């Protein structure tokens, strides 16, 4: 760059008009151009990824190592012709049918499209078969643990435990038969419990067993098999030295709408169930917890018939909520919150409320975790329009920061299969924060204040090799 600036300075000087300038003017402009050159060189150098003591530091997530994750990958979706017409008698009995949508097709077990989104075991991700597929994520494929069994950790979340330098993935074990408690109820499985898997690299997972089990005999217990246990999340309390689990506790009709708490001295359990509550005396359904850098933790839950979210700090021991609570995204009907933080700003991905059926995700951001929260639009990039409007046929559950890659995260989502819930799949995709938002924001008079959150569709992807070598 310096050379370019220098040669431009020379050509300026050789211009007939420039030749009339005095020698002093000439050298002033030369000095000025050299200065510009130096500044540009320093600027470009600061953008080049630096390798220092085995750690990758990058100036911006949009450069170098993360570039391959941010490639926009398109998908052509084969849409089968619409289903055959109903008989006039059926129309008379049940009224005209709603047009059959792609989501209906996706949920319909007999459709070709369904099979495409739930490929069979032949294509499973198998850590025992290393080779060319090693370390690759294939969103939607069956994912096996180290013993060769499909991972059962739905609606889950990940804890990185600094003490054991291990990742723990907690989630719903749904490995039971799917049924409906009554004709109009949502598809369900009986509570089996919370599974835990451990990993050093976020790809090869070892089953640590069920760390909190359903209750078989006492019908009044929150964890009685006939109830609902969803979206378990675990954080570590530095003061008490305990691992604290929060989860959604409900009855089969989702009228109990409570949050449950369990604790353990070890990340692999067993967890002791303490109680459930209606936080701040409000309904609580889909929920998550978030531990901030200062050790303060928060509960975020869908409330008031899922029409709004509530957020409030937990007590110092993380075993309860305090009296402080703010209503956020009021009237927006959002659920499945997944919260994360980057460069002092809080971000959240949520879904709409359509039960097991997928819908459009939204990204939100806030300067203060207690709000106000602003909505930034749909973070999904690539695939095609239908993929983007269904969160790649999945629903948010958690966002994992990638250590050493600032601004890069894994977006974890569930591809639910209400016809057979145990066969629901995981959709893990790279999420980055960077650049300015490209959709109009809510309260900012059209001026983009927040960095854009992007979740990139990939049929197959893995962490940049450079990153893998340093972890
Ligand atoms: C979804 C929710 C899931 C589960 C499901 C039941 O809206 O996110 O966790 O509760 O409804 O239909």
Protein model, in words:
The protein has 8 helices and 25 strands. Residues about 1-25 and about 40-60 have low confidence and may be disordered. The chain has about 475 residues and is of the alpha+beta class. It has one domain: Tachylectin-2, Chain A (5 Propeller), CATH 2.115.10. The chain is globular and about 90 Å long. The two termini are about 35 Å apart. Strands 21-25-24-23-22 form a 5-stranded mixed sheet. The site of beta-D-galactopyranose has 11 residues, from strand 9 and strand 17.
Keywords summarizing the entry:
alpha+beta; Tachylectin-2, Chain A; 5-stranded mixed β-sheet; 4-stranded antiparallel β-sheet; 8 helices; globular; disordered N terminus; binds beta-D-galactopyranose
Provide a count of the helices: 8
> Which stretches are low in confidence, meaning pLDDT under 50 for 5 or more residues running?
1-23, 42-62
Shape: globular
- Portion in strands: 25-35%
The CATH architecture: 5 Propeller
Q: How far apart are the termini?
A: 35 Å
Q: Output mean pLDDT.
A: 85
Could you give me the name of the CATH homologous superfamily? Glycosyl hydrolase domain, family 43
Total domain count: 1
Gyration radius (Cα, Å) is 26 Å
Task: Look at the helices and sheets and give the structural class.
Answer: alpha+beta
Describe the strand arrangement of the main beta sheet, using strand numbers: 21-25-24-23-22
């Amino acid at each position: 760059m310096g050379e370019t600036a220098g040669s431009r300075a020379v050509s300026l000087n050789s211009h007939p008009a420039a030749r009339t300038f005095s020698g002093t003017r000439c050298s002033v402009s030369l000095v000025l151009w050299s200065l510009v050159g130096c500044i540009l060189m320093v600027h470009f150098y600061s953008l080049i990824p630096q390798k220092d003591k085995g750690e990758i530091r990058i100036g911006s997530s949009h450069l170098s190592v993360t570039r391959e994750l941010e490639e926009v990958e398109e998908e052509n979706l084969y849409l089968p012709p619409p289903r055959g017409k109903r008989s006039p008698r059926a129309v008379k009995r049940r009224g005209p049918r709603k047009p059959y949508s792609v989501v209906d097709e996706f949920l319909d077990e007999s459709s070709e499209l369904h099979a495409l989104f739930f490929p069979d075991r032949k294509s499973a991700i198998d850590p025992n078969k290393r080779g060319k597929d090693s370390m690759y994520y294939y969103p939607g494929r069956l994912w096996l643990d180290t013993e060769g069994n499909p991972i059962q950790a739905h609606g889950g979340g990940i804890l990185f435990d600094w003490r054991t330098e291990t990742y723990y993935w907690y989630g719903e074990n749904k490995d039971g038969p799917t049924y409906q408690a009554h004709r109009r109820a949502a598809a369900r499985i009986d509570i089996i419990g919370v599974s835990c898997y451990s990993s050093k690299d976020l790809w090869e997972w070892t089953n640590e067993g069920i760390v909190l089990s359903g209750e078989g005999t006492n019908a009044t217990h929150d964890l009685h098999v006939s109830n609902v246990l969803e979206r378990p999340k675990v954080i570590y309390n530095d003061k008490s030295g305990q691992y604290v689990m929060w989860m959604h506790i409900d009855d089969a009709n989702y009228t109990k709408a409570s949050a449950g708490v369990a604790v353990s001295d070890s990340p692999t359990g067993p967890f002791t169930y303490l109680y459930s509550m209606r936080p701040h005396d409000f309904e609580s359904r889909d929920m998550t917890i978030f531990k901030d850098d200062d050790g303060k933790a928060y509960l975020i839950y869908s409330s008031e018939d899922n029409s709004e979210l509530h957020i409030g700090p937990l007590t110092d021991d993380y075993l309860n909520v305090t009296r402080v609570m703010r209503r956020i995204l009021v009237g927006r009907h959002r659920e499945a919150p997944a919260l994360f933080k980057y460069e002092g700003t809080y971000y959240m991905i949520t879904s709409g409320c359509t039960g097991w059926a997928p819908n459009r995700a939204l990204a939100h951001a806030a300067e203060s975790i207690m709000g106000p929260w602003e909505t930034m639009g749909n973070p999904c990039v690539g695939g095609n329009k239908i993929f983007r409007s269904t969160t790649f046929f999945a629903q948010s559950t958690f966002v994992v920061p990638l250590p050493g890659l600032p601004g890069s995260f894994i977006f974890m989502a569930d591809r639910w299969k209400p016809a057979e819930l145990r066969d629901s799949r995981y959709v893990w995709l790279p999420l980055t924060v960077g650049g300015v938002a490209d959709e109009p924001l809510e309260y900012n008079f059209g001026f983009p204040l927040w960095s854009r959150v992007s979740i990139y569709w990939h049929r197959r992807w893995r962490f940049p090799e450079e990153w893998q070598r340093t972890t």
